[in-house]
């Protein structure tokens, strides 16, 4: 499963999200700060 991760705070979206959020709900970083990664690579997951 691919998830979007916020490179600023590490927040990850739900796996069914096709697009990153407009802003991170945790740190309010813009969607340019999000990166699509495999869920298995999420730190501490
Ligand atoms: Zn964030």
From TrEMBL:
Cofactor: Fe(3+)
Residue ranges annotated for the Rubredoxin-like domain, each copy included: 1-37
Record-level Gene Ontology MF annotations: iron ion binding
SUPFAM superfamilies: Rubredoxin-like
One Pfam family it belongs to: RUBY_RBDX
Domain of life: Bacteria
Protein's name in the database: Rubrerythrin
